[in-house]
Structure formats: structure tokens, C-alpha cells
């Protein structure tokens, strides 16, 4: 004997379950199959159903739980180096640098300095 709530009643089955406060009735749009809300109110459904959780990288801000994976990839607080593959990248980089002969580097610096010197002389 569950009497319908006097104020709101129940949404019409098969119709959008969004209560339009302004009209004091439920939305009459027909939602897509399997959805409780019509396209217009689907957004609100998502907002309501979504849970915000503190970001594991920085609890000072929160993220939608279902967006966490996405967020972790672009979170501003992810400064800690990622395990394994990040370290490998760093190693590879160092190797590349180490393989450049010192001579080449110093020579090019020298010639750069030389040409700069020449240029300065020219200007002065
Ligand atoms: Zn609706
Ligand atoms: Zn974050």
C-alpha cells in the first residue's frame, strides 16, 4: 500500500524520470532504451550518479570516479616518476647522450664560440 508521494508522484513508466521543478511534474520525453532520462536530462543523471573521489595523486582535488583513469594521465599533480617504463626511457636517453663523443661536442662549442667571437669583432 505504498501511496505515491503527494508532491512528486512517480515518473510515468517509459518516460524521462527527471522531475521538472518548474512544471511540478516529470519530464514527458521518452528516453533512449535502458536509460532513465531523456537526452536533455541525461546529463543531470550522470552528474547525480557520478561519484567524485579524491585524486590519488593529490587529494586536494577530486575527480569523477569513472574518469579516474583518464584523469591520472593528465593530472597536474603526477610528478612522481612512473615505474619501470619511465625509468627505461631515462636510461635510454642517458645512453644516447653518453655515446656522443666529447670531442664533437667541444669542437662544435669551440667553433661556435669562435664564430661568435668573429661576429662580435665584426660588429665592434
Ligand atoms: Zn527529460
Ligand atoms: Zn589529480
TrEMBL record:
Q: Which GO terms describe its biological process?
A: tRNA methylation
InterPro entries per record: Trm13 (IPR039044), TRM13/UPF0224_CHHC_Znf_dom (IPR022776), Znf_CCCH-type_TRM13 (IPR021721)
Catalytic activity entry: adenosine(4) in tRNA(His) + S-adenosyl-L-methionine = 2'-O-methyladenosine(4) in tRNA(His) + S-adenosyl-L-homocysteine + H(+); cytidine(4) in tRNA(Pro) + S-adenosyl-L-methionine = 2'-O-methylcytidine(4) in tRNA(Pro) + S-adenosyl-L-homocysteine + H(+); cytidine(4) in tRNA(Gly)(GCC) + S-adenosyl-L-methionine = 2'-O-methylcytidine(4) in tRNA(Gly)(GCC) + S-adenosyl-L-homocysteine + H(+)
Known EC number: 2.1.1.225
User: What is any Pfam family matched here?
Assistant: zf-TRM13_CCCH
Residues annotated as region Disordered? 37-58
- Which is one GO molecular function term here? tRNA 2'-O-methyltransferase activity
What does the UniProt keyword field contain?
Answer: Metal-binding, Methyltransferase, S-adenosyl-L-methionine, Transferase, tRNA processing, Zinc, Zinc-finger
Presence of keyword Mitochondrion: no
PROSITE patterns per UniProt? ZF_CHHC_U11_48K
> In terms of domain of life, where is this protein from?
Eukaryota
Locate the CHHC U11-48K-type domain: which residues? 52-79
What is the annotated signal peptide range for this record?
A: none
Query: Which stretches are transmembrane?
Result: none
What is the documented function of this protein? Answer: tRNA methylase which 2'-O-methylates cytidine(4) in tRNA(Pro) and tRNA(Gly)(GCC), and adenosine(4) in tRNA(His).
Q: Which family does it belong to?
A: Belongs to the methyltransferase TRM13 family.
- Stated name of the protein: tRNA:m(4)X modification enzyme TRM13
Amino acid at each position: 500500500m505504498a501511496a505515491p508521494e503527494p508532491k512528486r508522484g512517480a515518473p510515468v513508466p517509459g518516460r524521462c524520470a527527471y522531475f521538472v521543478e518548474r512544471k511540478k511534474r516529470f519530464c514527458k520525453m521518452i528516453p533512449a532504451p535502458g536509460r532513465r532520462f531523456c537526452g536533455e536530462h541525461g546529463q543531470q543523471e550522470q552528474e547525480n550518479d557520478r561519484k567524485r573521489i579524491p585524486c590519488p595523486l593529490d587529494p586536494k582535488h577530486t575527480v569523477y570516479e569513472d574518469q579516474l583513469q583518464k584523469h591520472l594521465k593528465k593530472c597536474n599533480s603526477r610528478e612522481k616518476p612512473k615505474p619501470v617504463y619511465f625509468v627505461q626511457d631515462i636510461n635510454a636517453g642517458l645512453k644516447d647522450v653518453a655515446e656522443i663523443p666529447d670531442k664533437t661536442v667541444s669542437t662544435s662549442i669551440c667553433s661556435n664560440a669562435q664564430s661568435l667571437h668573429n661576429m662580435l669583432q665584426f660588429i665592434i
